[in-house]
Amino acid sequence: MPASGLGSEVERMTRLLLSLPELELRVSWLKDHFGRWPAQTVAGRLDELCAQSERSEPGARQALLAVACYFTAEGDSALVRELRTIAEDAHLLSLGRMLCWGRVRGTSAPPIGPSPREEVPDYGTGRELTVGERRSLARRPSRGHIEKMLADPHPLVLRELLQNPYLVEADVLRLAARRPAHVAALEALARAPQWLCKGRVRMAIVQNPGTPAHIAGPLLVICNRVELLQVVGNTTVPASLRATAQELLARRPPIRDGDAADRVLQ
Which of 97, 152, 159, 166 has the most CB atoms in a 10 Å sphere around its CB? Predict the structure, then answer.
């Protein structure tokens, strides 16, 4: 497809995505269409969208937020591996910055389940609660057990907790920034667009040295100039991620007076 045709297809995709009122709906739209489009088509359109975002085009940056959320949840799926191969073989550099994860191979999402080294918190019942009981507790509209549940090692419990209306951004920031990294929490956050749309949460995830590459990589490409500079200057962040941040900075256009294209995405 000629560049002009590809550009018009991406503009149409962007308009359709942004016409949906909620980020979760946009991610669902992508999941449906990526499952029906040929991988070559997905790769070409995403590379053009990433390139537009790198040029700080506001609509593309907004649309790419949904794409990033989609990929953080996908992990190292078959489609992601295929797209990564296409990006490398066809020299789709903009898409490669999102999916090649610093050219690190063999990165995959951990299995669903608690780490054997992490203990289940004491919920004051005199026994260890089952996963089902803890999930039920996480759904209750109360802050009574939230402090303990933030330390729960099981992703399914944490996913329920992230839907709790009594959870606040400060709680989520603690999960995202925990050292050493609470990988189960980061995996749960990767599937929670309602929190990934928060700039401070995204930055806490990206700058956590223990964040899996398949989560940090897609989120990095939607960082603005100031956020990228923070990543470049953070020596605790993996070198491959800092190198990609430097590449993205180099592609940013000069700042113009009154330019709002490089603001934090919310």
Answer: 152
Element (H, E) at 250: helix 239-251
> What separation, in Å, do the N-terminal and C-terminal C-alpha atoms of the chain show?
33
User: Among candidates 257, 223, 196, 86, which has minimal Cα distance to 232?
Assistant: 223
Which residue reads 């550099």 in tokens? 93
Alpha-carbon span 27 to 7, nearest angstrom: 21
Q: What is the torsion angle, in degrees rounded to the nearest 10, for the CA atoms of residue 108, residue 113, residue 116 and residue 120?
A: 140
C-alpha 227/C-alpha 43 separation (Å) is 26
Reported pTM: 0.86
Cis before 180 (ω within 30): yes
CA distance 42 to 95: 10
For the chain, the domains span 3-106+215-251, 110-211
Segment 133-166, tens digit of pLDDT: 999 999 987 787 888 899 999 999 999 999 999 9
Structure-token match 């907790």, residue found: 161
Helices H / strands E in the chain, number of each: 16, 0
Mean pLDDT computed over 207-221: 95
Q: Could you tell me which residues come within 8 angstroms of residue 191 by beta carbon, excluding any fewer than 6 positions away?
A: 72, 73, 159
In whole angstroms, give the CA distance from residue 164 to residue 173.
15
